[in-house]
Amino acid sequence: MKRQDLIKVLIEYGIQPSKAKGQNFLVDKNMLDAMVKGLNLQEGERVLEVGPGAGVLTRIIVEAGCQLTSVETDVKLHKYLTENLIAPNFELVYGDACRVDYSTIFKPGEKFRCIANLPYAISSVFIAKMLDTETPPTEMYFLLQKEMAERFSAKVDTKKYGSLTVRAGAMYESKILRTVPPGVFHPPPKVDSAWIHMKQKETIPSKDALKTLNKLVRASFSQRRKKAKKLICQQFPSDLIESIYEEMNLKEGIRAENLSIEQYLEFSQKLLKGSN
Q1: Which residues form the domain of 212?
Q2: Last residue of a domain, which of 167, 200, 233?
Q3: C or N: which end of the chain has fewer Cβ atoms within 10 Å?
Q4: pTM across the whole model
Q5: Within a 13 Å sphere around the CA of 137, how many CA atoms are in the beta-carbon half?
């Protein structure tokens, strides 16, 4: 959809792009084609799309024969899509993507991929929700603000390395595929975006291990400037933490960003074992 065509749709449906909702519509066909090229869409596969907007990417996924479920929270955009995109392999859900119960859409164990142009305001919340689903997506492709995208491949001991870096890194390999400039959107955002690919690892921790990991990571990063040990001891038995620190040969003064993903995984396994 060209910029002038999008503007006509927005005017017809009385849609004013919301800065608060992060509504920036992709209008550059070359960029869209480059993004879609690597998706390798398969006929019949289950796909979840969040924030379909004017349906530019949505139409491509539907035309590829995927069984697509899209979630849209904007009433007017939902109305536009309902009236203009009708296909037997397309389901449109009205709702907040961060609150939708995805167990009603995907059966336990059912494989699906997630594709989304995510507003910055909901990026971390939505991705965390995907990580917590009963059956997480096998792959995720997100168009995010570049700053947010960089967090998923952030290195230990850096400011961008945080709780979501660890939680996602325990389950997915993340890679920025391309930087996306502001000019390909309407209206153009003030910052660069990035197209990121997250592929589920061959082996991921058990549900119990992930639950323990999440609790550990949240505690550790709750106050980044404080020593991790003191924060962790607020959530787990201090004697158990003492023994784990000794086993792992961890320094007393380390902070959350000093522990690698592998160390967090090892720590959480020891916590799980020590709690049983």
Answers
A1: 207-275
A2: 200
A3: C
A4: 0.92
A5: 27
